[in-house]
């Protein structure tokens, strides 16, 4: 094993040296990488609009059942829509903890 | 025959295993590696000293490779996931595998690019596994924005999956009109989808599930009882795409090109990219990568008019996998695949000489004995791993493989024939589909029969 000829030794040492530089460089990049804050993703992206969502879509959110979804739609019809998500707290069945859980999925446009 | 690559692999793997069990300082070992490199350069003319220094250098390189694979950049997705939290994340990225739909759920690998949580936006990297509650038709390379919960996986760390995301609402997925797909992988997934469609259209669900596993490596539709029965008889390797399947694909492609009267050299040149496409289509698991590299090594050896050495081609295949992801060394599929092939390469000739197989005059009998010895070598090679991982001993394995492997070859060949015939003459697909149904039924019956033999398998 490892019975390299002179030429093979030179080539393999060169390749191992390159591999070592590569591993070291990659380690350095990872070690000194920083978290970059950006402003590309819109805060509204992939959120459900309270003013247009139907019952089925609202029921897709964990914590909203059939009854609660019905109450949200009734509230929306009675008040001609939501002006902001905080209005959800006025609906019977939405406690502070439930509101904290579901607000991340909702938006009022 | 020189075993340089095998030696290189052995020392590299020793370094990886060492670092797996013992915590090391990256910079200390990096300094050591450079010192050893310089010492190797200066002692290049001294045979014995060079060998020792070079072996130490390769060992240190193995240590550094594994240590480096553990380090994640600060912007890696797993750095943003907390152990216990109800944070809702919005992730932008693209689908990095073929999406699978089942029971209204879609699953795929997702390469992340941007992340939003707690009102902050960050650049990020790394792959996550996504489970989407959506009946939508997604495709590889498609850019998406997903909103849902993310948690750490327990068992998928070695597979380069650092997190699992659940998206439970249909409205929490936004499709962006961008495509990040690579042409070769896109073609591979397209072909895979076409083949799967044919298999599921023409065959009953059970036969289609088994054929899908044998031809394309998709195990999701194999009933648990069938899988369990195959594990007990030690023939489960036929239900995953392995070197066996790659060999059959290579054989079929070369045969097809031979029918088209193509000379040997272009035939072998065309076979190589076809094997790579097949490897990509089946998810490039370690056994397939190993078999593909070994097959290409063999074909290149033929083109260069050189006798390929199976031991070095096996070492090259292992090196290619380990250099890309050193953690694969600890995966079951890697260990079983390489242990079985290494046992066939190293142990089988010794067993053949020990039992004096060449002395057998009847050709058919010699063929049967050789088959038994190949199966016995593979069983002995993988026995330790099977005992450790599955806690089962299957003395019936050798006999089972003698009966099941020819049947599996027949199923794979007839499965590929069914696909080709359906594409060319759809009206003639019927008899091929019936043949597949028959062979699969025979395979299951034979396996169940073998398991009824007393002490066919024993649980530890």
Secondary structure elements and pairings:
The complex is a heterodimer of chains A (109) and B (460).
Chain A lengths: L5 H26 L16 E2 L5 H5 L6 H13 L17 H7 L3 E2 L2
Parallel strand pairs in A: 1-2
Chain B lengths: L3 H18 L4 H17 L4 H24 L18 E7 L4 E3 L2 E13 L2 E4 L3 E6 L9 E10 L11 E5 L5 E7 L3 H20 L2 H12 L7 H10 L9 H17 L4 H18 L4 H18 L6 H15 L7 H23 L8 H28 L1 E2 L3 H28 L4 H23 L6 E2 L1
Parallel strand pairs in B: 5-7
Antiparallel strand pairs in B: 1-3, 1-6, 2-3, 3-4, 3-5, 6-7, 6-8, 9-10
Detailed description of the structure:
The complex is a heterodimer of chains A (109) and B (460). Chain A has 109 residues and is mainly alpha-helical. Chain A has helices spanning 6-31, 55-59, 66-78, 96-102, and strands at 48-49, 106-107. Chain A has 2 domains: 1-33; 48-107, Photosystem II 12 kDa extrinsic protein (DNA polymerase, domain 1), CATH 1.10.150. Chain A is built from 4 helices and 2 strands; from the N terminus they run αβαααβ. Chain A has a two-stranded parallel sheet. Chain B has 460 residues and is of the alpha+beta class. The two termini of chain B are 41 Å apart. The relative contact order of chain B is 0.09. Chain B contains 14 helices and 10 strands. Chain B folds into 3 domains: 4-70, no CATH class; 77-181, OB fold (Dihydrolipoamide Acetyltransferase, E2P) (Beta Barrel), CATH 2.40.50.140; 187-459, no CATH class. Chain B has a 5-stranded mixed beta barrel with strand order 1-3-5-7-6. In chain B, strands 9-10 form a two-stranded antiparallel ribbon. Chain B is 59% helix and 13% strand. At the A-B interface, α1 of A face α1, α2, α3, β3 and β4 of B.
